[in-house]
Design goal:
- This protein is of the alpha+beta class and 454 residues long.
- Helix content is 30%, strand content 23%.
- The chain is built from twelve helices and 16 strands.
- It has helices at 3-9, 112-116, 126-148, 203-213, 249-270, 272-281, 286-295, 303-312, 329-339, 390-399, 408-415, 428-436; strands spanning 15-28, 31-37, 45-50, 68-77, 85-96, 152-153, 159-160, 172-173, 196-198, 215-223, 236-245, 299-302, 344-347, 369-374, 378-385, 421-427.
- Strands 6-10-11-16-15-14-13-12 form an eight-stranded mixed beta sheet, with helices on both faces.
- The radius of gyration is 26 Å and the shape is elongated.
- It starts with a helix and ends in an 18-residue tail after the last helix.
- Bound molecules: adenosine-5'-triphosphate and manganese (II) ion.
Length: 454
């Protein structure tokens, strides 16, 4: 039986076996107390081993942190304060020892930096295990939300030939000899007959399906070779991208707000025990921060207003604030943490700093873009209404230096049965960061990939 179920249903006095890993062993006169965790929940089950039981001297007294074990025995109601049941052992089998002199995890708390050097063992710590249970629960909530809203999930390709963001952040996928010394790789002789790479976004492909199925979403791995060694960027991360036909920017913003509220509510309702750990050890204000997402309506401000607010604030920033430059993370955090003190949606950015596919506004200077900013995280969502007018799109592509030949399929979506549509991308790891309060994005994904490390 899983410890999670044992602690919940607690059928006292029944005989059973439990399997898991030793967290600690403490000896008393005639007894040993062993804390067992099996990963199913944050709490350990306390095993009481009496000196009279089988294998007490030969095995129990040799147990150390990290050993994998199977205890047989029975559950009893515990006399100790703060726990309802404990496990009275009658026999022990050790599956695998963990010699204390070399096992890197000890009883004490380890820093997250230290744990990043042992990515394969860190899930055996309370904090990383809790992150992963919350992450898994949130992934399910993502699918539930879209299912309830009649969205259809599309698995967009991981290998693609469209560099959606146009920022040259794509990893190349090739079977050509990497050691051949050529100035321009002969991609026509490559596996796909042209240059291909790992996707930076499933959006363009999702658009094709939205303009047929109405409401679709993707939830998959995304790759960006951006050389940003920050606490909020990974080279491989997971992105959720809904794309909706017959939606304008406002409808898309409302959906993004409902989505974030749904996910935070889901965590508060389903992950309480694990959230308590983060509230205790990582971020004392966790609950208040999460509650600002569900109680208040998000603030909404246009990019131009945001620039005025930042300029009038009297605050000095490392990056200057001026109309036409992108908001930096310090500006985003100032808006959401100091000015509005709640989630904030910034809309209508200058066309010059946004990709070609965003719909040009009537002023012809700005596009129907929106970013959702969260306190302590900054940008969590980026989205827009898409350019659905053939000529305008073609002009914008030419301005952006996009090779039109490569995007005839994308233009076709406007040639035939074009319709207003909109969508956005939410970085899943940034969501998990926000919900757990974890400071570094590398600690909310199992095996982080960052510049210089894979
Ligand atoms: P940023 O300015 O923070 O780099 P972006 O403008 O490049 O973000 P988008 O292209 O709009 O981001 O991607 C949508 C969402 O994907 C972002 O709001 C963010 O949550 C997430 N995201 C983007 N890049 C990364 C990354 N390198 N690692 C993790 N998440 C990311
Ligand atoms: Mn980026």
């Amino acid at each position: 039986m899983l410890i999670k179920d044992i602690l919940k249903t607690a059928p006292a006095d029944s005989s059973m076996e439990i399997k898991g890993w030793v967290r600690t062993r403490r000896d008393a006169k005639g007894f040993s107390f062993i804390e067992i965790n099996d990963g199913s929940c944050r709490l350990n089950l306390q095993v009481v081993a009496q000196s009279g039981m089988k294998n007490f001297d030969s095995l129990v007294l040799k147990l150390t942190t990290g050993c994998a074990v199977r205890f047989t025995g029975k559950l009893t109601s515990s006399p100790a304060k703060g726990q309802e049941v404990e496990f009275l052992a009658d026999d022990l089998e050790v599956y695998g020892w963990a010699p204390a002199e070399s096992y890197p995890l000890q009883k004490k708390r380890h820093s997250f930096e230290f744990l990043r050097d042992i990515n394969h063992l860190r899930p055996r710590t309370n904090s990383i295990a809790a992150v992963m249970r919350i992450r898994s629960s949130l992934a399910m909530a993502v699918h539930l939300f879209f299912h309830e809203q009649s969205f259809i999930q599309i698995h967009t390709p991981v290998i693609t030939t469209s560099d959606c963001e146009g920022a040259g952040e794509m990893f190349t996928v090739t079977t050509l000899d990497p050691l051949a010394k050529v100035s321009k790789p002969p991609y026509s002789a490559d596996f796909f007959g042209r240059q291909a790479g790992l996707t930076v976004s499933g959006q363009l492909e999702a658009e094709a399906y939205a303009l047929a199925l109405g409401r679709v979403y993707t939830f998959g791995p995304t790759f960006r070779a951006e050389n940003s060694n920050t606490s909020r960027h990974l080279a491989e991360f997971w992105m959720i991208e809904p794309e909706m036909a017959f939606f304008d920017l406002q409808m898309s913003i409302d959906l993004a707000e409902d989505f974030l509220k749904y996910l935070v509510n889901h965590a508060l309702d389903n992950c309480q025990e694990d959230l308590e750990l983060f509230e205790k050890f990582v971020d004392k204000n966790l609950r208040t921060r999460l509650e600002t997402v569900i109680t208040d309506k998000f603030a909404r401000v246009s990019y131009s207003e945001a620039i005025e607010i930042l300029n009038a604030s009297g605050q000095t920033f490392a990056y200057p604030v001026a109309w036409g430059t992108d908001l930096q993370s310090e500006h985003e955090r100032f808006l959401t943490e100091v000015v509005f003190k709640k989630p904030t949606v910034v809309t209508n950015y200058p066309a010059s700093i946004k990709p070609f596919y965003m719909r040009l506004n009537e002023d012809e200077n700005t596009v129907a873009a929106m970013d959702v900013l969260l306190p302590s995280i900054g940008e969590i969502i980026g989205g827009s209404q898409r350019e659905d007018r053939y000529e305008v799109l073609e002009n914008r592509m030419t301005e952006h230096g996009v090779d039109l030949d490569d995007y005839q399929w994308y233009l076709d979506l406007r040639r035939y049965g074009s319709a207003p549509h909109a969508g956005f991308g939410l970085g899943f790891e940034r969501l998990v960061q926000f919900i757990t309060g974890m400071a570094n994005i590398r600690d909310v994904i199992a095996f982080p990939r960052t510049p210089g490390r894979a």
